[in-house]
Amino acid sequence: MTLLVISPDYASHLLPLATLATEWRDRGERVVVATGPATAAIVESFGFERVHLQLGRGSNPGVIRAEEQVAEEDASLRGFFDATRLGMVETLSYQARERLTDLMWQPVATARAVLDVVAAVRPDQIVVDHLAFSARLALVAGGVPFADVVLGHPTALPVGDEVYGCPPEWPAAFGGADAGADPALAGGRTTDVVSNHPHAWFDSTSVVRPGAEPEGIAGLRELCERVDASFTAEWNAALAELAPHLPPSTSAFGEHGDLLLYNYPGELADPEREHLLPPHVWLGSAVRAEPVDAEVAAWLAAGAAPDPTPDHDPAPAPFVYVSFGSFLSVRSDVLGRVAEALRRVGVRAAIALGSGDRSDLGEVPAEWLVREFLPQVTLLDAATAAVTHGGNNSVTEAMTAGVPVVVLPFSTDQFAGAAALERTGVGVALAPNTATVDELAEALRHVLDLPTRDPGAAGRLAGLAASLRETPGRARAHAALTGRG
After folding, report:
1. CA–CA separation, 132 vs 6, rounded Å?
2. pTM of structure
3. Beta strands in 11-95 (DSSP E)
4. What gap in Å lies between CA 319 and CA 342, rounded to an integer?
5. CA–CA separation, 342 and 361 (whole Å)
6. What pLDDT digit, counting tens, does each position of 21-75 carry?
7. How far is CA 479 from the centre of its chain?
8. Least buried of 259, 292, 329, 445, by fewest C-beta within 10 Å?
9. What is the arrangement of strands in the sheet containing 348-352, beginning at the earlier edge strand?
């Protein structure tokens, strides 16, 4: 049996897809990954076959830097990073405008290349990244059955009256009356959300009713509707050339495979959306196995506090894992405020700096671990809490480890994901551009002491982690596609 995995040339996309594919590999089945050259080493590390397939102009082998991209992608990334400094609406608007040009790179030629790969590999099952639009276009045009994996928050596939790119909800820190330096955000969100946290930054003004959207969100939705129309026209033009017998799409962002695999815990999903979803499976998470990192292992061992009773292993001292992922680590100005909050709380930290500037962290205590890249799964397994940008890989890996989070969302579906964490009580969400050191410190104290401050949320998190560990996403994916447990 052969599984074909189709992925963009980005580590953050390939890693969870490859992790799902390990279930096939471990059962002695063939796995072929179609992707670009930047992630070839990742494919090799999993022991998979690789065939060349370039789905876009950009790439990311693990830590992304604008200067390492082709000229057009360099300018796009720099514009995106600048937009994140302005606020939620500005960032989402920038991303929406970029989608007018970068969603399908050379769609007809790329689609034909995809179909050539399918013909050469002759797979029994195909899984494709949901955001690999040209690849999904090819499979639709070719009448090839496939499952697409929604690697981000479930709202990445809009349903009902949702519009791709405009979050259906966002955290209280972005939508309440106290929206800090971004007055355009004051007073609105698109759904009813009531905070579970009785802290100073959550008050009665955080409860906002539908229809109270600020002007910025209304303009964003209108822009996203224009992008949807433009993208659908582009999709249909390519589809007409590839398969003129097929009817046009009414909304290309709503297109999907025969089966949807959500890389997300169903326990965190909005139950009101469930009846609107196409055939789907909640994978929960795609937590990968990591090789032993000797320096990290030594750091973890050095932080273990001796247990007074000789029959017990040393108890690990609390620490917070911090990462803004491969893209948003460039926002080391925000990491600097997080570092100061950690110093005030007096807790150890492991910080994945990525492409950020170490000097922005200020004085780094000797007991901290700071590197460009850190083994995230390993550290989350031992952490007491985490600080994250809210990327779906980071969120689902933290939930699998049973680690509560402080989430500072910057872009895309991170806002809806942060709202879900806030709503269920397993995280505290703050606006990265306006959160003060005092607010960050109090949020850290809350998640570090979650069992005392919110026992119900701590219990839900422990139950979720147990469920995700008992039946990993890779096993759920294999059962869904093959019918075999």
Report:
1. 8
2. 0.86
3. 30-35, 49-52
4. 10
5. 11
6. 999 999 999 999 999 999 999 999 999 999 999 998 776 665 444 444 444 567 8
7. 24
8. 292
9. 369-371, 348-352, 319-323, 385-388, 405-407, 427-429
